[in-house]
Amino acid sequence: MQLGEVSRERFNPARPDELVSVTPAGDAATAADAVVSATAAQRAWAARTGPERGAVLMRAGEILASRADLVATDLVREEGKTLAEATGEVHRAANVLRFFGSACWQADGETLPSSAPGTHVYTRREPLGVVGVITPWNFPLAIPTWKIAPALAVGNAVVVKPAQLTPLSVWHLADCLSAAGLPSGVLNVVFGSGSVVGEAIVADPDVSAVSFTGSSAVGARIAAVAAQRNCRVQLEMGGKNPLVVLDDADPAVAADIASAGAFGLTGQACTATSRVIVTPGVRHALTENLVRAAARFQPGDGLNPATTMGPVVSAGQLTTHREFLSTALAEGNQLVCGYEEPVGLFEHAMVVTGVGRKNTLAQEEVFGPLLAVMTVEDLDEAIAVANDVAYGLSAGIVTNDLRAAQHFVGHAEAGVVKVNRPTTGLDLNVPFGGIKASSSNTYREQGLGALDFYSWTKSVYLGV
Ligand code: NAP
Ligand code: MG
């Protein structure tokens, strides 16, 4: 970590006077220095045995878990989620470290029959070298962890640039890895803006691959810069995730599933439910239940145990929500709950009905607690509407009709499809990623398959 002359202050979104962190604002030279330091450290790290690297990751997981209260509190203070949500994220990150730590002990590679006599053929997984990691603010601990852990497991060194809004969580992660014995230089944290520091990492010829999570617009820019030097990229981006509710569904159950997906994490999740697509028989009952369910999300300071929804992350994000709401009303949609003007950054859970298939709220990612309700005639139209967006991250259906559920699973254009479960919430051992504008869709994150992005396969012929 290098201290530059310019620094950036982050204040608590729930308590605007409370300073949470001061971080140096790096520049292109800071990023270049970090790549040099990573390059110098990488070979020795890769030369360690898998179990040695795994032991460091496992220890880091234990250390992070032992600091869960402190790290979760800081996560609430810098990002704004509730303490329960933040605590879940910390334990998730600890488990990700344990998972990839234990992966270092697993069998890997293949033994293959050779056409030549006396020849032993097998494959080895090789690290890429230095990997760049660029992350968003909404899961400021879990996302960096689920990129950095598999990268380190395979023997890479990492340069990570966290979002400027949430630098402290990555600092905690780096501190846990350092305390666990990760050698100096193997993980390098660079603070600063995406357009300067992020872009310098992507353009650096000594960075072998870049894993990015964030908006589709920034992802497209990173893909373009990386393509100029044939650099491997993994892009996980936005969503406009649908939840289809069919006539046979229990409206109270469907509203619970929809509201958990739409308003949990203040709606600031890439897999958040942002469209409920409902058939006519259940529409009225579902809307009534949605209004009731939305009222259970009471905005407040995430450190207050009574709070069920934290503040929006920033004033800029709040302005974006309000602009989307104004556009929706101008397009003839109706706001049925969440009327209050926000106080500070405390937004209310909003449900908007009468949203047409080509309306702005049907098409564009809001990334806040604003749920669009759309009515369709039947399952076929529901699937057509669900797929009629640029994105394809997560999709859900609520029904007890197994045939309908299977049809939806087969036809939904989304990397994750859920039946009778919220569109949010994913297991760390299950492949995760989108299609269409949601993802570069070349490699999946999470699960053992995550190792593939951070490595290449060498085929070895061993003659005797
Ligand atoms: P963002 O604005 O795209 O920023 C993401 C990261 O990219 C930040 O660290 C940002 O730096 C950096 N960046 C910006 N411009 C860059 C450039 N030209 N070159 C390199 N890096 C650059 O996203 P966000 O607002 O932080 O997060 C919200 C978005 O993330 C939503 O669209 C959401 O759907 C998506 N997301 C997707 C997933 C998934 O797994 N699919 C998960 C979570 C979130 P700054 O510090 O300057 O902002
Ligand atoms: Mg952004």
Overview of the molecule:
With 464 residues, the protein is α/β, with parallel strands linked by helices. It folds into two domains: 7-237 and 439-463, 3-Layer(aba) Sandwich (Aldehyde Dehydrogenase, Chain A, domain 1); 241-419, Aldehyde Dehydrogenase, Chain A, domain 2. Helices cover 41% and strands 20% of the residues. It has 15 helices and 19 strands. The strands form five sheets. It has a seven-stranded mixed β-sheet, with helices on both faces. A five-stranded parallel β-sheet has the order 7-6-5-8-9, sandwiched between helices. A hairpin with a 6-residue loop joins strand 3 and strand 4. Helix 2 (50-66) packs across helix 6, helix 3 crosses helix 4 and helix 9 (251-263) packs across helix 10. The chain is globular, with a radius of gyration of 23 Å. The mean pLDDT is 97.
What structural class do the secondary elements suggest? alpha/beta
Q: Write the CATH architecture name of the largest domain.
A: 3-Layer(aba) Sandwich
End-to-end Cα distance: 49 Å
Estimate the mean pLDDT confidence: 97
User: Total number of β-strand segments?
Assistant: 19
Total number of distinct structural domains:
2
Give the ligands present: NADP nicotinamide-adenine-dinucleotide phosphate, magnesium ion
Name the CATH class of the largest domain: Alpha Beta
CATH fold node name of the largest domain: Aldehyde Dehydrogenase, Chain A, domain 1
